[in-house]
Design a protein that fits this description.
The chain has ten helices and 15 strands. It has two domains: 2-74 and 310-342, no CATH class; 82-301, Rossmann fold, CATH 3.40.50.410. It is of the alpha/beta class. Helix 1 packs antiparallel against helix 2, helix 2 runs antiparallel to helix 9 and helix 3 runs antiparallel to helix 4 (146-154). A six-stranded mixed β-sheet has the order 7-6-5-8-11-14, with helices on both faces.
Amino acid sequence: MAELLFRYPYVLNGLYFLPILLFLAFRHIARNAKLLPIIDGRPAKLRNFFQAIFAITAAASFIVALAEPFGVDKFKKPVWKGEVVDFVIDLSLSQNANDVKPSRLEVSKMAIFEAADVFNKEGITTLCLAFFTVNFNRLLECTPDIDNFKSIVQRLDTALAGNMGGTNLSAAIPADYGMIRAEVIPKNSRITLFLITDGGKEMSRDKLTGAVIASEPDWKEDELQKKAAELSKSGVRVIPIGIGGTKPAPVIVDGETYYTLLDEKIIKKIALWSGSPERYFIVRDGADFGKWISNQILMNREVDYYRDESKETDLWRYPLLLGIFLASVAFGALGVVRKLVVW
């Protein structure tokens, strides 16, 4: 809905004098005998009649321009529900593997930086950070301080977790969202959990036979399924992200060489248990991880309510240009247009 307004409406009072000027101009043209000779078979007063019309209209345009007209467009602006983004990162030693360059952990950190900058520009500033190995550790409760968040992400290292080699995926599911909702984040905010892990699929090579032996997982699948499903039902979006290459990658643990391989199957299962089988991501070299993270938030935001907004557009240029054009015609600056008007 558009509305026309004027910043200086009192200037428009000058328009009231224009009919008087128009009347005086016509009377002058009709009474002045010098204006009556025939020119090319047409009375000169016809030419002067149009000249007066253009001059008066030009004056009116200048007056309107001086009043500085502007348009006001009214519209409904969506106000998005609060968004809380929680990053839970696997800090087991397998994250030092460099099957994605420069390492699994460094790629994760760079993607989080990229996503955090996008969130900050879009007004999504409530970010949380945690890590896990065999236990869950909350590093940073949800905060609007983006710089502090990024500085803590920068310091992430497997040493924070004691350089442990085990991975308990059941420990990756946070249990503190009840407290976070009650005490930390804005009411009615939606929480999205990005779980970044390689899935904990680890192998070693038998020193005698050289055979590769896959280690048993440090977690139970049915327990992980239950936790993921319950968290999803509570309103938290769980988005698993698998990071790693397609082949086993070496990693050093206590001087021994082990091998780690991304377990894509468990990543897809977590997505399935969380209610959206297609909502997961596999990070390999060349994948735009950070952009994908930000898109998952920005493209799926929910409207909380609509707020009345207005936008002003200056319109004074249009009557000013019209006035200049008409004045040019009236006073002979545009001779060609003037001849066309006469005929």
